[in-house]
């Protein structure tokens, strides 16, 4: 079983993380709301009990402990706050009821019991003895008076606690509904997100099966996914282009190596049969193997140059002096071919940081190409111009020129026009020139008019 089948799906991870984060956030929010509400209510009823108890203690002191007067105070307090909201009890030092103002007998009995236990504050939750009430919840504060009597003041907090219970239930239902809706939304978003990734995965599997033209259709789900799809399609384009070029290159190499090998084999078979060759077999073997070795070395140089595998240090080169030296090297060849070469370079030095050997191969291939296709009496022009942060090198000739439909192919490996197939060469010179220019982040182009000549322009940034 593959690791992909063992691993949990991304959709499950997204939903789980979304639900976990949502549940934690909702629970924290609900707990905070409950805590704030409870703190506010507690502060409110504690403040009410403190104020009411303080007022009654002052009244008791003014009455001098007279129970008859305190009875009227209790009645006034009950009338002011409501018999169902305030519950009052005064007990003697022995814990017996001295005075009370309580509308519920069950609550009164509980307050008497708690007063004997010297509890300063407590909560009472009792079934009411009144038919219209089921349960009453009280918060009670007990204060010991100077003469040993105890004053218990109870405050009805039934509505407050019911509100808190209602709030807790509402928050719980809200959390549950939010989790359900959040889970559905997270699953929906995860399916949309995973669908786009699945499209990429399916496309990759089809490409792996050999369908190199497969691409991912744009989903427009999100900017990140669109960037992923564009990057994937671009990678597929480059891969298909590289494979096509590799297939073409392999075919071309096989074709160019098969010709000399076939000649050698034919000559060897003829010699083995006792035939007499026009040229000695060792001479033919040396010539054909040299051609094949040159072909292979040029291909290696193109590959290494295109991949920038040459890590040799650069040197500062005066391109003007470099071009003059190159022209001197070609003087004999130009004379033999009865060609004229015009050199147009600046008077001042044009410095460039590069590799001398690589530049020699570049200029040599361009000049060899111009000499090959320029008839006797023709003119070759070599010019150099520095424009801002780049140098521009042009090699022009007055040769046969190149047809417009053939210009896009001139820098392809092993490509040769119909008019040049009878001439020596393997179609790698301009391909090597382009690889060298590309290694310097430059460009090379060709303009040509059939019957009037061609111009190759090289533009290289000054390092």
Describe this structure in words.
The protein has 463 residues and is an alpha+beta fold. It folds into three domains: 12-163, Beta-Lactamase (2-Layer Sandwich); 223-306; 315-461, Heat Shock Protein 90 (2-Layer Sandwich). The protein has helices spanning 3-6, 10-63, 67-81, 105-116, 158-208, 223-272, 281-306, 319-329, 331-336, 356-373, 429-439, and strands at 86-91, 97-101, 121-127, 135-144, 150-156, 315-318, 340-344, 351-354, 379-387, 390-397, 443-449, 453-461. A five-stranded antiparallel beta sheet has the order 2-1-5-4-3, sandwiched between helices. The chain has a five-stranded mixed beta sheet with strand order 7-9-10-12-11, covered by helices on one side. Helix 2 runs antiparallel to helix 3. The longest helix is centred in the first third of the chain and has 54 residues, at 10-63. The model has no long low-confidence stretch (mean pLDDT 80).
Which features would summarize this protein structure in a list?
alpha+beta; single chain; 11 helices; five-stranded antiparallel sheet; Heat Shock Protein 90; 463 residues; Beta-Lactamase; five-stranded mixed sheet; 56% helix
Shape: rod-shaped
The CATH architecture name of the largest domain reads: 2-Layer Sandwich
Low-pLDDT stretches are none
| Structural class based on helices, strands and sheet pairing | alpha+beta
Number of helices: 11
Nearest-integer average pLDDT: 80
Assign the CATH topology of the largest domain.
Beta-Lactamase
Helix content: 55-70%
Strand content: 15-25%
- The counted number of beta strands is 12
Strand order of the largest sheet: 2-1-5-4-3
Q: How many domains, as an integer?
A: 3
Identify the CATH class of the largest domain: Alpha Beta
Q: What gyration radius follows from the Cα positions, in whole Å?
A: 50 Å
Q: How can the largest sheet be summarized?
A: 5 strands, antiparallel
| C-alpha termini separation | 54 Å
What is the string of helix and strand elements?
HHHEEHEEEHHHEHHEEHEEHEE
């Amino acid at each position: 079983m593959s690791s992909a089948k063992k691993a949990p799906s991304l959709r499950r991870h997204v939903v789980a993380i979304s639900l976990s984060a949502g549940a934690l956030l909702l629970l924290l929010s609900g707990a905070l709301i409950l805590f704030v509400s409870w703190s506010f209510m507690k502060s409110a009823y504690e403040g009410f009990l403190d104020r009411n108890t303080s007022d009654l203690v002052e009244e008791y002191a003014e009455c001098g402990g007279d129970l008859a007067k305190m009875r009227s105070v209790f009645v006034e307090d009950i009338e002011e706050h409501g018999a169902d909201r305030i519950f009052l009890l005064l007990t003697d030092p022995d814990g017996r009821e001295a005075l009370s103002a309580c509308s519920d007998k069950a609550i009164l009995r509980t307050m008497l019991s708690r007063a004997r236990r010297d509890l300063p504050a407590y909560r009472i939750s009792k079934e009411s003895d009144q038919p219209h009430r089921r349960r009453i919840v009280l918060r009670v504060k007990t204060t010991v008076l100077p003469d040993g009597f105890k004053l218990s003041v109870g405050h009805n907090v039934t509505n407050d606690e019911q509100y808190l219970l209602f709030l807790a239930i509402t928050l719980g239902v809200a959390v549950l509904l939010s989790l359900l809706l959040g889970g559905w939304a997270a699953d929906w978003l995860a399916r949309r997100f995973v669908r786009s990734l699945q499209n990429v995965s399916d496309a990759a599997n089809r490409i792996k099966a050999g369908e190199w033209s497969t691409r991912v259709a744009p989903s427009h789900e999100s900017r990140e996914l669109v960037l992923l799809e564009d990057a994937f399609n671009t990678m597929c384009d480059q891969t298909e282009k590289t494979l096509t070029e590799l297939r073409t290159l392999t075919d071309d190499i096989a074709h160019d190596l098969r010709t000399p090998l076939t000649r050698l084999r034919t000559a060897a078979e003829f010699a083995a049969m006792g035939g007499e060759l026009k040229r000695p077999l060792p001479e033919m073997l040396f010539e054909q193997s040299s051609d094949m070795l040159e072909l292979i070395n040029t291909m290696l140089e193109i590959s290494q140059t295109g991949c920038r595998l040459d890590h040799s240090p650069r040197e500062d080169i005066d391109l003007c002096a470099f071009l003059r030296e190159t022209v001197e090297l070609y003087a004999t060849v130009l004379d033999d071919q009865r060609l004229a070469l015009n050199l147009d370079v600046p008077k001042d030095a044009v410095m460039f940081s590069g590799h001398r050997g690589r530049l020699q191969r570049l200029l040599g291939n361009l000049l060899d190409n111009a000499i090959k296709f320029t008839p006797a009496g023709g003119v070759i022009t070599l010019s150099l111009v520095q424009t801002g942060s780049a140098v521009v090198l042009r090699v022009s000739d007055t040769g046969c020129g190149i047809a417009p439909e053939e210009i896009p192919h001139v820098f392809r490996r092993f490509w040769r026009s119909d008019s040049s197939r009878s001439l020596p060469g393997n179609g790698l010179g301009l391909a090597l020139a382009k690889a060298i220019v590309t290694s310097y982040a430059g460009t090379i182009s060709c303009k040509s008019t059939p019957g009037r000549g061609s111009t190759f322009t090289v533009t290289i940034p000054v390092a």
